[in-house]
Amino acid sequence: MRLKDKVVIITGATSGIGKSLAMQVVAEGGKVLVHGIEKSDGEQVVSTLGNSASLCIADLNDQAAPNKIVAAAIAAFGKIDAVVNNAAIFERHKLPELTPESFARTITINLQSSLFLIKAALPHLLQTQGCVLNIGSINAYSGEPSLLAYSISKAGMQTMTRNLANTYGVDKVRFNLINPGWILTDREYADQIKRGLPQGWPETLGKINIPSGVMSTPEQLATACIYWLGDESRPFTGSIVDLEQFSIIGRNPEK
Ligand SMILES: NC(=O)c1ccc[n+]([C@@H]2O[C@H](COP(=O)([O-])OP(=O)(O)OC[C@H]3O[C@@H](n4cnc5c(N)ncnc54)[C@H](O)[C@@H]3O)[C@@H](O)[C@H]2O)c1
Q: Which protein residues are within 6 Å of ligand 1, measured from CB?
């Protein structure tokens, strides 16, 4: 039980990586405020998790969401030990098609809501000497051409993580970030079908994208998150951890 009695807020926990993490947090003895925007999906997740989970539906595009999420966690469990900023949108535009509205939506949901969720939770994290785990993306270092706004939002998350880690280290509140590589979530599968890949595309990928031959799973990513949420990772803070099947920095496949 690596997270016994820890109370963890996970945004976007009704699907994908967030859902897998919610399951693993409860399996490790923790309690989860499952946040999401899809009510029926959220109800399904919390009904599986029983008394160890509580649901909060809030649109992160709404500035009231961070306070609502923190209030829901306190009402359900009385304290907050950790916040996982996992929710995100994945709007694809290269620069000529990018509009101010789309850019603002991506920055608001992926970055600004994370910052203000941390702000709302901070008094509680100071009490528990808790931690924040931000879910970034390897796109933060540059990114796919059509993921311009998304990549910028994830780059901002990295600086936010390091800045807050340096500010709150003396208070023993820790801030770390995981940059997932390509993870086979249901959303990712569906998004790539919409972009024109054939049914069953994960089995057709070459070794440049997937050196091991098998795509990484949400469960594998969630397992790595558990370490950063528990006391066993104390006192480490300000860490940016890339989790991909190859090195992100300096890779130069043979031509
Ligand atoms: N799957 C990948 O390949 C991959 C790669 C790198 C990073 N990531 C990151 O992992 C995290 C989870 O992604 P995923 O692949 O599990 O996808 P996902 O779509 O299953 O998860 C994102 C969640 O965010 C929620 N969300 C979106 N907009 C929202 C809003 N306005 N208000 C509230 N909730 C909202 C969605 O409902 C969803 O539950 C994201 O931060 C993503 O950037 C994923």
A: 12, 14-18, 36-38, 59-61, 86-89, 109, 135, 137, 180, 182-183, 185, 187-188
Ligand 1 atom 14, closest CA: 16
List domains and CATH numbers for the chain. Answer: 7-181+219-240 (3.40.50.720), 182-215 (no CATH)
Kindly report, residue by residue over 140-163, the tens digit of the pLDDT.
Answer: 999 999 999 999 999 999 999 999
Q: What is the pLDDT of residues 92-101, one digit of tens each?
A: 999 999 999 9
CB 166 within 8 A of CB 209: no
Q: Are strands 240-243 and 131-135 parallel, antiparallel or unpaired?
A: unpaired
Ligand 1 atom nearest to 13, measured from its CA: 39
Ligand 1 atom closest to Cα of 90?
Answer: 43
In the predicted structure, residue 255 carries a pLDDT above the cut 90: no
Give the predicted TM-score (pTM) of the model. 0.98
Per-residue model confidence (pLDDT) at position 5:
97
- Residue 56, φ and ψ in degrees, nearest 5: -130, 115
Best residue among 86, 117, 178 to mutate for probing ligand 1, ranked by most atoms within 8 Å of CB: 86
pLDDT (tens digit, 9 = 90+) per residue, 199-211? 999 999 999 999 9
Q: Among the residues of the chain, which ranges form H helices?
A: 16-27, 39-49, 65-77, 100-107, 113-128, 148-168, 186-194, 218-229
> Ligand 1 centroid vs 51 CA: distance in angstroms?
25
pLDDT for position 80? 99
